[in-house]
TrEMBL record:
PANTHER family: ALDEHYDE DEHYDROGENASE-RELATED. It comes from Mycolicibacterium brisbanense. Keywords: Oxidoreductase. The active site is at E255. Belongs to the aldehyde dehydrogenase family. GO terms for molecular function: oxidoreductase activity, acting on the aldehyde or oxo group of donors, NAD or NADP as acceptor. This is Aldehyde dehydrogenase.
Length: 482
């Protein structure tokens, strides 16, 4: 597939099976981050629009939740089949709206999303739990897993459709009705997906409200008739959501930021591991909460390893997102680019900018791939989430120093260790305070596997059996035998 301009979906609210414009006074522009040009615009929404969407979901949920797992699965598989047939349209929308290079969207991200849709379509058919039995004399007890009810999903702009699918599909599979609030920068693919999906669903089971996070997101996270908020985004916004949700209180699942450590021991194949690590650092222009950002390298090989990283950065093809040779696209927005540039500019004088660090001379929100070494643990580039095509370099003298540098941040999402010594690799991952850890690889993600953070990276799981269970409530049923 070469790039062909897709039909842009209408960006509006989907409420009870009808597309209606938001009733906010504001108009929001959707930009192509590769050019800065406006693709389309949409009306913002208000708390009243949120009320209408939640009411539609509330009304539709009991009948949807009462279907058998097989019946729901059949509807979701119908969505999956149509989605897989129309995948190219969604590739083009993510390229335009989210600034994804065509080859990455076409060969990796959208096929993975299609697999996730397929996976989650069947995911609620094999729930498991504690055996029923007589735990109290004279009483037989069993456990039911039921839908929680109305799920609000609030999604970020870095993987617009991937994130929407990872919330919509498992929540629906478990029998919930859903209200989705896409990131205001990237509403296109979610609108197109919802339009496709709703044809296979009863009205009101899937709803969308588009608009500002501070208005629509806050209204959803504090809505008395929402039972669970599943949020992916920044730690600061996650705190706001947890606070808004505390009033009811509403259950929350928070997938927040990260700044993954990558510990490289002296026994690795330097060239091979540098190449894999750079790939895991620059995927999606580094706008990936598990990106392989913080290189923590054994002193004896550090210079050789950083040189190998630079060689890989030299190979990166920054360019038009519609060109299939491009391997590095733009950041999502001018604001995001400015934020990353500020972090780079704020590096201490002792640090060394080994590669990149500047904007190329072209339209759009691009930044050259960047390596900065000689950083200390309390530097902002180490402590903050960068969310750009930037790697940082530190060195260590021994295993315990490597672990303490890796763990010495507030985040706890992902990390990796690179060594040929199996025992050492296992010792180190056991000691890491991160929810997703890998040995000699990085960014292993599949809908079969639970993703989730610790500490400032949030709590709860998405994906795998644990991710499905997040969308259920547990009821203990005891029956007297007398
Ligand atoms: P970023 O700061 O990188 O845009 P956010 O975490 O703020 O990332 O955005 C992720 C999602 O959270 C978006 O859909 C955004 O609209 C939404 N959001 C932003 N602020 C709030 C808020 N106060 N309450 C609920 N949702 C919000």
């Amino acid at each position: 597939m070469v790039f062909t301009m897709p039909q842009l979906p209408r960006v509006a609210n989907l409420i009870a099976g009808e597309w209606v414009d938001g009733s906010g006074a504001d108009t929001l522009d959707v930009l192509n981050p590769a050019t800065g040009e406006v693709l389309t615009s949409f009306r913002g929404s208000t708390a009243d629009d949120v009320d209408a969407a939640v009411a539609a979901a509330r009304a539709a949920q009991p009948a949807w939740g009462a279907l058998s797992a097989r019946q729901r699965s059949e509807a979701l598989h119908a969505i999956s089949a149509e989605f897989s047939d129309r995948l190219d349209e969604f590739v083009a929308l993510e390229v335009l709206d989210a600034g994804k290079p065509l080859s990455a969207a076409r060969d990796a991200e959208l096929p993975d999303i299609a697999d996730s849709v397929r996976h989650f379509a069947g995911a609620a058919r094999t729930l498991s739990g504690q055996a029923s039995g007589e735990y109290v004399p004279g009483t037989s007890t069993f456990i039911r897993r039921e839908p929680v009810g109305v799920v609000a999903g609030i999604t970020p702009w870095n993987y617009p459709l991937w994130q929407a699918v990872w919330k919509i599909m498992p929540a629906l599979a478990a029998g919930n009705a859903v209200v989705i609030k896409p990131a205001e920068l990237t509403p296109l693919s979610t609108a197109a997906f919802a339009d496709l999906a709703q044809k296979h669903l009863p009205p009101g089971v899937l709803n969308i409200v588009n608009g500002y996070g501070s208005v629509v997101g806050t209204a959803l996270a504090s809505h008395a008739d929402v039972n669970l908020v599943s949020f992916t985004g920044s730690t600061a916004t996650g705190r706001n959501i947890a606070q808004a949700a505390a009033a009811s209180p509403i259950r929350t699942v928070l997938e927040l930021g990260g700044n993954a450590p990558v510990i490289v021991f002296e026994d690795v194949d330097v060239d091979a591991s540098a190449s894999l690590i750079v790939e895991a650092a620059l995927y999606n222009a580094g706008q990936e909460c598990m990106a392989a950002t913080r290189l923590i390298v054994a002193e004896p090989i550090a210079e050789r390893f950083f040189d190998a990283v630079v060689k890989n950065l030299e190979q990166v093809r920054l360019g038009e997102t519609t060109d299939e040779a491009t391997t590095l696209g733009p950041l999502i927005s001018a604001a995001q680019l400015a934020r990353v540039e500020k972090l780079i500019a704020g590096r201490p004088s002792s640090a060394s900018l080994r590669f990149g660090g500047t904007r190329p001379d072209r339209a759009g929100f691009y930044l050259e791939p960047t390596l900065i070494t000689g950083l200390s643990q309390d530097d902002d580039l180490v402590q903050h989430e960068i969310f750009g095509p930037v790697l940082t370099g530190q060195t260590f003298a021994d295993e315990s120093e490597a672990i303490s540098l890796a763990n010495g941040v507030g985040f706890g999402l992902a990390g990796s260790v690179w060594t040929r010594d199996v025992a050492r690799g296992l010792r180190v991952v056991n000691a890491l305070n991160f929810g997703n850890v890998w040995i000699n690889t990085h960014l292993v993600v599949a809908p079969d596997l639970p993703i989730g953070g610790l500490n400032q990276s949030g709590y709860g799981k998405e994906g795998g059996q644990l991710g499905i269970e997040e969308f259920t409530r547990v009821k203990q049923v005891g029956i007297s035998l007398t």
